[in-house]
Design brief:
302 residues, mainly alpha, Ferritin, 11 helices, 0% strand, Ferritin-like, PaaC, Aromatic_CoA_ox/epox, Ring-1,2-phenylacetyl-CoA epoxidase subunit PaaC
Length: 302
Amino acid sequence: MHEETVYDALTNAHDDAGHWAFGTGFDEPLAGVDTTVPDGVDPADLGVYCLMLGDDALVLAQRLTQWMTNAPELEEEVALGNTGLDLLGQARLLLARAGSVGVLGRSRSLATASIPDEDALAYFRDADEFRNTGLVEAENGDFARTMVRLLVASTVRLAVFARLRESRDPVLAAIAAKGVHELAYHRDHAARWVLRLGDGTPESHRRAQDGVAAVWPLMADLFTATDVEARLVAAGVAVDPAAVRDEVREVLTTVLERATLTVPPWPDDVAPRGREGRHGEELTALLATLQGLARQHPAATW
């Protein structure tokens, strides 16, 4: 009796068709989902908003993978890996939603014509086409800074996703309903580490406080809506970032105080940069790693 290898099983499961070598999977992420854009909503705005949320997840996931083989303990490598996978799953759904409303448009080249939308958006956009915030693209720093950044990012994202469950766009609402459970774990995990480090040894306390000092200014543009967000908020699709500010402040203040850490002054709001495609060299370097192989072999299949 012939016994398939794992490679035979993968190939046979898809009728021996060629598959793009760097894809996130073979199944359409939104298969069976009604992707009709709600009445009164500009598809272009919806696509850009999905890029904002999806790029945040994709870039932060890439940052977390940089801790693989470098985390302070094996169990933490598994935890960070799982967090990164959760975020990649969210990114895939959100980028697929962006693709479903025509974000790619004419930018798709012949070389990427057969690549799923979410993969084309992840691998073949330049830095100035990404819409993530500066919070997620900043360098990791040491482990304490990474945990403070994860605490802030997951607290903000959880507050947004909790409200997005009521979005008029059923796709966004469904993505948010699934994501809140993942993000609640991310926030809890990061908070436990911040408590452990802040209320630990003098050295861990110092590093945690330095992490807070480094991350806090990165919140300055998180709560200012872009024009796209403002229009979608009015249409009942998006969440006004200013609406989550008080909740985020309360959560972060509570965690830091319990960790015996000093809460810095809340940064003044500034106009969003990353949401408008303005990024630093950190993102360019990160994307070189994320996209390099796929761009060298854009038509590769297996």
